[in-house]
Write a structure and sequence with these properties.
This protein has 9 helices and 9 strands. It has 253 residues and is an alpha/beta fold.
Length: 253
């Protein structure tokens, strides 16, 4: 999968992309991340990519010309007055607090694309003509404001990449993650079997995989019930799950 990132701060990305799972995925050719400096598509000696907003007010606004030129050049789009059909296969995503909120389902949706373009906003935002005439999607990572779209872009790259085949060492690793199965993830333990008087649950040492699976499912239900009960309303629950959750509710009533 290929990520095209458009930013005014390309130096933000290498340190995170050159570590751990994303580094190995890139080395194995499973993902490709191209980071494009929007200032490289300016045509003045100061490489101006922002200007004061019309109508006054504080802050600066990202100019339309370098953003359009950068994205159109990289994606091979033909600017007006060309009559050729634009490339509609690559989502052009603006990272913005005004976008739809990013979650695991959105990550799954985006993982189906072979190529994604990510536009990182800065300052007070972008010229509205970029949003109206270039961007095809808008995504927010939550109801708060950051100084730019670079961190959200990294979050999206990370979340989407780990859903791709062979990126994780465990082929089913992403399936059991919190939110991936509609519940929060069950607790994990590793060696030693006892630490400062706290023991690993006996069922995990039993070797009985059927009981282990049942314990993990119930622990996921319990943790979701305790921390995110709203998720249970949307989760795909079996009759056994519903019976277990009913018991949890009766214990607190």
């Amino acid at each position: 999968m290929q990520f095209e990132v458009f930013t005014l701060l390309p130096e933000v990305f290498p340190s995170y992309l050159e570590t751990s799972i994303l580094k190995r995925a890139r080395e194995r050719g499973l993902i490709t991340v191209h980071v494009h400096n929007i200032r490289d598509y300016t045509h003045d000696k100061h490489h101006t990519a922002d200007d004061q907003p019309y109508g006054g007010g504080g802050g600066m606004v990202m100019k339309p010309e370098p953003v359009f030129e950068a994205i159109e050049s990289v994606l091979g789009l033909n600017p007006p007055p060309s009559t050729s059909e634009p490339d509609s296969t690559t989502p052009i995503i603006l990272l913005t607090p005004q976008g739809r909120v990013f979650n695991q389902n959105v990550a799954k949706e985006l993982s189906q694309h072979p190529r994604i373009a990510l536009l990182c906003g800065r300052y007070e935002g972008i010229d509205e003509r970029i949003r109206e005439n270039l961007v095809t999607d808008e995504i927010s990572i939550g109801d708060y404001v950051l100084t730019g779209g670079e961190l959200p872009a990294l979050i999206l790259i990370d979340a989407v990449s780990r859903l791709l085949p062979d990126v994780l060492g465990d082929p089913t690793g992403a399936e059991d993650d919190s939110h991936a199965m509609g519940l929060l993830e069950y607790p994990h333990y590793t060696r030693p079997p006892e630490f400062r008087g706290s023991k690993v649950p006996d069922v995990l040492l039993s070797g009985d995989h059927k009981k282990i699976d049942q314990w993990r499912r119930q622990q996921a239900l319990l943790r979701t019930f305790q921390k995110r009960p709203d998720m249970l309303e949307k989760a795909d629950l079996s009759e056994a799950d519903k019976k277990f959750v009913k018991g949890l509710k009766s214990n607190v009533e």
